[in-house]
């Protein structure tokens, strides 16, 4: 038997020696993207091949033996691997960039890192895009801790807003590639001006509280740091189409060349979004584009971004009166919009907001030495547009006109149509030097100089009666300018398991505006402010998965345009000061990631919302001496099984003003002014600050490439003013106060809404990916309001509140089909 076995082996040896095998695999970059055209080489015998469009390769007819395999691609480090094989094998390669990765330097200058003693949430491109059905960018952040979003139109398209820890958009610092997005005067961020920006976003970091030093206005509730698309090494073409309720349509086309000759890349996007809105006459017609070109070499990157948005939205920023919502006999009792109502009970068709905003960013990054890197940017933003509105029975003297006498009768009042224009320019420079002194010590020196000029003016384009005006009569003009300079230094020193953090910022603001002087003359005035914002913290790493941290930060914030222009030097609001104490614990494992954060935000001279809005939806504010926000934030993501995961967060907080004094206008029966009425309140709630915010997302993948998610959000009640609704004698304007559930209650009721999101991806030879998506919002058709306003006054000795709400859409859907090539 042994002899027979030996004989068989002897006979088979020549066959085995001559057997032919293959080596196959896939070549990708570190982001997991396929690298078509990469070269795979072996020696002895010398042979090579190139990867196909999906990055796959195969070397066939190879005898058993030892081989050294070399994978190479322009712009990447060559990788070698030696193998011994007697059978076919699969060998994959992940290549490392050989050129300087500029985006990392650009973005880390203003971001929190893994060990930063700051509360933050990072969102990847994948996490952002799974929710991208055409709604505005704040809705992509709706499930981050302490966030509450709202929509004027009720659908998430058009004018939208976000609050973090109860602070509105004027307190949230927003940057795009480190460049400020907040309007220099109003300080808000109007994402409607950049529709479908989400489709060009690579990642977002949301910081809560003061956070790290950044460019632009100070963060009083949080900051949103947006990074647009970064380098993609392979060419692509993406087409996305969405349709949905209320006439919603979104079309997006994205193209990219990938890395050309190891040095160049070009990317572009074109989008349009249209929606009728849930609120009556709250339509949106939005268009945008994004273009980016970059040059890479071994030590530097130069990138030019040009992006623009054009919006035309029917005005819905006044909300719906409470007596309409509270009247069950009205068929349209939740979608009524009174803006543009004409004497004949029709509506003015051009009661719209028209605005275009163009952005130009030139970003340069260079690795100066192994320890020193520089990033800098030049930027320019041009905004131009107006909102047009019908105004009934306007006094001509209000527009600087002398009443015209016709037939012996002076024309003192008339219906008219006016346009309020804004023509503004914002430009400047940002920079950062990052020095890695040692592996455990780094410094960042950064800052910015920005300049803003804004021309505000109004035209009358129509009057119902002859008022003696010339065509396109200009009745006011206000030219403003603002310069904003800041410089900051930040350092981190790791001593064993302890990381020490320090951040010092100096900021100077010079603002020139047309405002009232002490004699109530409207004259050009100046405001100069100097702020020093120190921050310090410590992080202790328990092990590679767990750390604890604590920090203290100071933030200062200037009043906005309306605060200045609607006051005199004697009544002008003061700048705000915030002392922010944070402490927390973070854990990160394969199965669970999460954390707990405690915060105490102590304000001096906080500018609080009164609950009222001006005629374009901007909030009116007053200083309060002492106020605070204190609470706990909990968030986590649990991977229950390979197919099932659960992400949840909750914020429990108390938000109080220690002593509040407010003065209300008072009128008699004929609406003649009387002596104002003063009210005082002790330890009352801050407006728009819910005490409980909870978010949840349960995701399940029942089949490969398919998933279903159940998304929930609970927001407790919020008051529309800062009185805590403690005055039961006040009533609303409802004709039937007794039967109106909204009467007296100057608050937003608690709401709990649930969405369902489904997705399925199909891969084919011709099309890299076919993505199918369905988002059912408010699946249980909950009726609720996410925002509102109140205007209190005293009429004939009785407190009256004019309350308005923004109802959000009941059950609605968005369905999408995307093709990737």
TrEMBL record:
What are the residue boundaries of the TonB-dependent receptor-like beta-barrel domain, all occurrences included?
A: 300-779
Q: Give the record's keywords alphabetically.
A: Cell outer membrane, Ion transport, Iron, Iron transport, Membrane, Receptor, Signal, TonB box, Transmembrane, Transmembrane beta strand, Transport
Show which residues constitute the signal peptide: 1-19
Membrane topology reported for the UniProt record: Multi-pass membrane protein
Classification via InterPro entries = Beta-barrel_TonB (IPR000531), Beta-barrel_TonB_sf (IPR036942), CarboxyPept-like_regulatory (IPR008969), Plug_dom (IPR012910), Plug_dom_sf (IPR037066), TonB-dep_rcpt-like (IPR039426)
What Pfam families does the record tag this protein with?
CarbopepD_reg_2, Plug, TonB_dep_Rec_b-barrel
Q: What is its main location?
A: membrane
Keyword Iron in the entry? The reply is yes
What is its subcellular localisation?
A: Cell outer membrane
**The TonB-dependent receptor plug domain, residue ranges:** 114-222
The domain of life for this entry's organism is: Bacteria
Q: What PROSITE patterns does the record tag this protein with?
A: TONB_DEPENDENT_REC_3
Query: Where are the bilayer-spanning segments?
Result: none
Q: Which family does it belong to?
A: Belongs to the TonB-dependent receptor family.
**Xref: PANTHER family:** FERRICHROME IRON RECEPTOR-RELATED, FERRICHROME OUTER MEMBRANE TRANSPORTER_PHAGE RECEPTOR
What name has this protein been given in UniProt?
TonB-dependent receptor
């Amino acid at each position: 038997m042994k002899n027979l076995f030996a004989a068989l082996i002897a006979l088979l040896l020549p066959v085995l020696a001559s057997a032919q095998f293959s080596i196959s695999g896939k070549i990708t970059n570190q982001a997991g993207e396929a690298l078509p055209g990469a070269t795979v080489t072996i020696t002895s015998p010398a042979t090579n091949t190139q990867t196909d469009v999906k990055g796959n390769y195969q070397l066939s007819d190879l005898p058993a033996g030892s081989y050294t395999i070399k994978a190479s691609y322009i712009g990447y480090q060559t990788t070698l691997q030696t193998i011994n094989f007697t059978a076919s094998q699969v060998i994959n390669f992940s290549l490392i960039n050989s050129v300087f990765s500029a985006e990392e330097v650009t973005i880390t200058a203003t971001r929190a890192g893994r060990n930063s003693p700051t509360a933050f949430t990072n969102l990847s491109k994948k996490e952002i895009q799974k929710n991208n059905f055409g709604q505005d960018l704040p809705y992509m952040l709706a499930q981050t801790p302490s966030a509450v979003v709202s929509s004027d139109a009720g659908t998430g398209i058009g004018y939208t807003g976000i609050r973090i820890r109860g602070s509105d958009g004027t307190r949230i610092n927003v940057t795009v590639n480190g460049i400020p997005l907040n309007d220099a005067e109003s300080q808000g961020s109007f994402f409607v001006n950049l529709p479908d920006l989400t489709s060009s976003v690579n990642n977002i970091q949301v910081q809560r509280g003061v956070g790290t030093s950044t460019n632009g206005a100070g963060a009083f509730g949080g900051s949103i740091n947006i990074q647009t698309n970064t380098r993609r090494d392979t060419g692509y073409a993406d087409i996305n189409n969405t349709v949905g309720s209320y006439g919603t349509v979104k079309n997006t086309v994205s193209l990219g060349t990938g890395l050309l000759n190891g040095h160049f890349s070009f990317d572009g996007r074109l989008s349009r979004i249209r929606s009728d809105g849930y609120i009556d006459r709250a339509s949106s017609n939005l268009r945008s584009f994004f273009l980016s070109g970059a040059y890479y070499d071994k030590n530097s990157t130069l990138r030019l971004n040009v992006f623009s948005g054009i919006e035309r939205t029917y005005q819905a920023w006044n909300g719906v009166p409470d007596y309409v919502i509270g009247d069950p006999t009205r068929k349209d009792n939740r979608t009524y919009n009174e803006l543009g109502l004409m004497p004949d009970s029709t509506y003015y068709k051009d009661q719209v907001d028209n605005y275009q905003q163009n952005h130009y960013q030139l970003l340069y990054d260079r690795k100066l030495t192994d320890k020193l890197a520089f990033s800098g940017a030049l930027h320019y933003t041009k905004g131009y547009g107006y909102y047009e509105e019908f105004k009934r029975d306007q006094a001509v003297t209000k527009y600087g006109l002398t009443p015209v006498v016709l037939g012996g009768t002076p024309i003192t009042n008339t219906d008219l149509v006016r346009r309020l224009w804004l023509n503004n320019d914002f430009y400047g420079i940002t920079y950062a030097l990052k020095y890695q002194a040692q592996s455990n010590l780094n410094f960042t020196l950064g800052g910015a100089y920005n300049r803003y000029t804004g021309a505000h003016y109004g035209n009358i384009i129509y009057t119902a009666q002859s008022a003696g005006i010339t065509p396109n009569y200009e009745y006011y003009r206000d030219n403003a300018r603002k310069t904003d300079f800041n410089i900051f230094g930040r350092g981190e020193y790791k001593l064993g398991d302890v990381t020490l953090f320090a951040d010092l910022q100096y900021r100077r603001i010079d603002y020139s505006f047309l405002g009232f002087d002490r004699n109530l003359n409207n004259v050009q005035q100046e405001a100069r402010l100097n702020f020093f914002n120190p921050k310090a913290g410590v992080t202790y790493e328990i092990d590679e998965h767990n750390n604890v941290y604590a920090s203290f930060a100071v933030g200062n914030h200037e009043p906005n345009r309306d605060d200045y222009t609607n006051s005199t030097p004697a009544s002008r609001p003061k700048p705000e000061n915030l002392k922010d104490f944070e402490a927390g614990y973070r854990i990160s494992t394969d199965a669970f990631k999460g954390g707990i954060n405690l915060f105490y935000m102590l304000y001096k001279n906080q500018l609080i919302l009164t609950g009222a809005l001006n005629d374009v939806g901007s909030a009116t504010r007053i200083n309060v001496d002492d106020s605070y926000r204190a609470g706990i934030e909990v968030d986590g993501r649990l991977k229950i099984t390979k197919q099932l995961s659960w992400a949840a967060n909750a914020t429990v907080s108390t938000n109080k003003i220690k002593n509040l004094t407010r003065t209300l206008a008072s009128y008699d029966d004929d609406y003649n002014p009387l002596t104002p009425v003063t009210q005082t309140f002790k330890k009352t709630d801050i407006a728009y600050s819910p005490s409980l915010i909870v978010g949840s997302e349960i995701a399940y993948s029942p089949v490969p490439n398919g998933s279903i998610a159940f998304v929930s959000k609970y927001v407790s009640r919020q008051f529309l003013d800062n009185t805590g609704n403690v005055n039961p004698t006040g009533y609303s304007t409802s004709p039937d106060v007794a039967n109106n559930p909204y009467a007296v209650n100057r608050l937003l009721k608690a709401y709990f809404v649930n969405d369902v999101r489904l997705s399925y991806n199909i891969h084919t030879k011709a099309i890299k990916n076919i993505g199918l998506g369905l988002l059912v919002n408010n699946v249980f058709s909950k009726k609720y309001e996410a925002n509102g306003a109140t205007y209190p006054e005293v009429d004939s000795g009785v407190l009256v509140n004019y309350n308005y709400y923004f109802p959000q859409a009941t059950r609605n859907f968005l369905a999408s089909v995307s093709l990737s090539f």
